[in-house]
Amino acid sequence: MNTREITEFREANYDTGVQAAALMNARVSAIGDCGEDFAITAVLSEDAAEKTVYDLVVDQAAIMSEAGQDFEQTIHRDALCYKFTVTITASDAQSVEAHLALTTSGDGFVNILTASDVEDKCFQGTKCNLDIESFEFDKFEEVKDWSEGVNVFFNAVVFAETSCQGFEATLNAYYQDFEEIAGTTPGTSEFATPLEEHGMYEFTSVAVEAENLQGDYFGELIVSNAEQTADTATARTEASTWNPPCYLYVDTFKENGSSVSLSEDKVALDLQISLSHEGDNACNSMSALVTISHGENVEFMHFLSASDLEAAIEGSFDFTVIVPSNEAAVAMIAFSDDNAADDATDLIDPAYVPESATSCEIQVREFCLTSMEPAEEQGRYIFTFDLTVIAAPICENLEATLDLANAQGEYLGNVSLDHDELIDAIECDCDKQFVVTADAESAYGDFYGQLVVREAASGLVEITDSCVLTKESGK
Prior knowledge:
Blueprint: E1 3-10, E2 21-27, E3 38-46, E4 53-56, H1 60-63, E5 69-74, E6 80-90, H2 96-105, E7 114-123, E8 130-142, E9 150-160, E10 168-175, E11 181-185, E12 193-194, E13 200-210, E14 215-224, E15 233-236, E16 240-242, E17 247-260, E18 266-278, E19 287-294, E20 297-303, H3 306-314, E21 317-324, E22 330-336, E23 344-348, E24 362-374, E25 380-391, E26 398-406, H4 419-427, E27 431-439, E28 445-455, E29 460-465, E30 469-471
């Protein structure tokens, strides 16, 4: 045996992909009648309880040359001691018995049939090296709602050599640019999960809490080791835009009063609406819909205009809705936005409870003389009235008379009308045209009618003059 040597250990280099290796050289020789056939082995083994043994490939010509054979063997990256053993055996040499016979006679040489040698050397391990393999934005998630911050989540994969003896990481979030930190999470390495690949650690959905503002957020990951034996690794993400949800609230939706028509078929509801919204630049398509329904049927629907919506948000919006009284069961408001976390709704249930009148009441909404035309009979004229009268449902056995007069207050004679038709016109709660004939001395001048409606049970008397019709000569 001539030489065997571990010339050097090569450190791994993560950046270039170079692996840790042991570099060795061995040279052997044979002297005397050893024959031509040799068994040569070279082995590198770890000096550990659970050791790895590397059988090296021997080139007989190279290892028995003057320069010897160079070996390169990939090893673990970590600090470890190794044994380099080279053994040569002369397979064709004289047997021990034959050699001993020659030696006894004094004519032989001492035969060395096998030679072996070992070198021990320790690898100090690869120096601490840190690298950020990947770093990217994951998602946004509010801590609670608009009233608290937003969590900005990131994913990352970090490489750290074992010799670093762990590492420290800090995760920062920046708002709009890299000039001001919006939030930070120190001790990020606590969330690291080791991967099967050597030195790789994964971070999944690690959060930084920042102020809940609409705009672009950037991430920054800083990795270092406690002993500061390696350069700090830093990575940043591209911008990710956070659009906070819109939060809508119906602060007030109430009925401030109601009034019922005399016929009790219509009700006027006085409604008040106050609205509010939250979220940084979040509510940009707000709308509010008011409906009044009876059962499954929507009887009234109204979208607030832009100005009405603004009034409801800045203070209150008050308005009156007139609907059939028997259909005003439930009033509802729905406050919406395309970006809303949830629509805001509120109900007034019931919106109106009908109450019947306790006494008879009559209202003459319209009573107007619209035309005067000659009848077939000389000296008689046809008078046409537009008539709208409303009587409370409790009114019974109504009586009515209609007289005609001129501007001088003189009543026209022989007034002819259908009393039953007049009563029907009063009780129908509708617009009617009503025709009366009467005598008149002149076809010209001012004329008007006088309607008298009575209810005997209550003693109610309602007297109303119509509008005046003027007939001019030649027209």
